[in-house]
Amino acid sequence: MAASFRVLTAGYIGERVASTVSVVVDGDQIVIIDPGMVADPSLMLDPLDELGIAPEDVTDVVFSHHHPDHTLNAAWFPNARYHDHWAIYRRDHWDSRPAEGFEVSAHVKLIETPGHTPQDITTLIETEDGVVACTHLWWNNSGPAEDPYATDAEALHAGRVRILELAALIVPGHGEWFRPDQDTPR
What share of the chain is helix, strand, coil (3-state, %, to 5)? Predict the structure, then answer.
């Protein structure tokens, strides 16, 4: 059985900023992706409560990268393992490992997709509707075509091509999920 996936709150960027925060339920594992800045804690916690998930139930948290708008509220999940580009952290344990190909659970895998930062990763989720990619390669469905903060534009564009070959749905860093098409910035 594939994992279930839900966007808890869709992010935005402009005068204010919030990250898109998602949850994956894969058997006994509950994974939160990018628990960063939100206008109010209820935007993240109420949808979890509707699913019958308490913050203490969350087993894993994934950071696409280490900007505060994607990490700020990680402490809400006290029992989780935390995953980034090079390690897994839990309490006072730091286990180094590359993100590329790491399986958080049976249907959740990490891949390295630098560009916005050198340390960016994408979370790939196998669902019944196809592969979902939670990534900061796009801010929202329109791109931007060129990320003005990208540390490596060439790597960012290569990562986009890679994700477009894999994903049926894209969950960008600061917007609603979208189905990629020929107009999706590459």
Answer: 20, 35, 50
For the chain, where are the E strands, in sequence order?
4-9, 12-13, 17-18, 21-26, 29-33, 60-62, 81-83, 87-90, 93-96, 103-105, 108-112, 121-127, 130-134, 169-171
Q: Which domain holds residue 133?
A: 4-171
DSSP state letters, 115-159: SSSTT-EEEEEEETTEEEEE-SS-SBTTB-SS-TT-S-HHHHHHH
Quote the radius of gyration of the chain (alpha carbons, Å).
15
Q: Which CATH number do you get for residue 116?
A: 3.60.15.10
Q: pLDDT tens-digit profile of 28-40?
A: 999 999 999 999 9
Is this model's pTM higher than 0.85 or not? yes
Overall number of domains in the chain: 1
